[in-house]
Amino acid sequence: MPESKDRDKQLEALLSTYRVAPPDAALVGRILESGQRRLTMRNRMIRWLIGAGLVGLGLAGGLTGATAVAFMLPSQSIIRTDYDTAFGSIQPDGDTSHMQEVQ
Fold first, then answer.
1. Is Transmembrane helix one of the keywords (predicted)?
2. 81 near 89, Cβ under 8 Å?
3. How far apart are CA 24 and CA 30, in angstroms?
């Protein structure tokens, strides 16, 4: 174990002497510019995805509404007469042959 501690100390001393030169201003500028570009692309993508989600939600709602209406409407096989209303059929009590049709 003492050997590994000595080796660790030697490595620490060697690494502490190594100095990295600071980057030049052009490199820093390019890095910052590319970061801003990525944020802009990310914001565009987020807006596009939100818009696509809203369109999908609208289409799903429309399809659900159309399906509900299709199930709720009565079948076309029902024969309707002139006396049918939304509340049912109202049949006249007497003879209506003398009445004229309203147009």
1. yes
2. yes
3. 10
Looking at the structure of the chain, the number of domains it has is 1
DSSP E strand stretches across the chain: 84-85, 88-89
pLDDT by residue for the chain (103 residues), tens digit each? 667 888 999 999 998 888 888 989 999 988 888 877 777 888 889 999 999 999 999 999 999 999 998 888 876 666 667 767 777 667 666 666 666 666 5
Under a CB-based contact definition with an 8 Å cutoff, are residues 83 and 89 in contact?
Answer: yes
Residue 50 lies in a domain: yes
Pseudo-torsion of CA 60, 63, 64, 66, nearest 10°?
Answer: 160
Which residues, other chains included, contact 90 with Cβ-Cβ below 8 Å and sequence gap of 6+? 83
What are 94's two structure tokens? 């007497």
**Contact criterion met (CB below 8 Å) for 92 and 84:** no
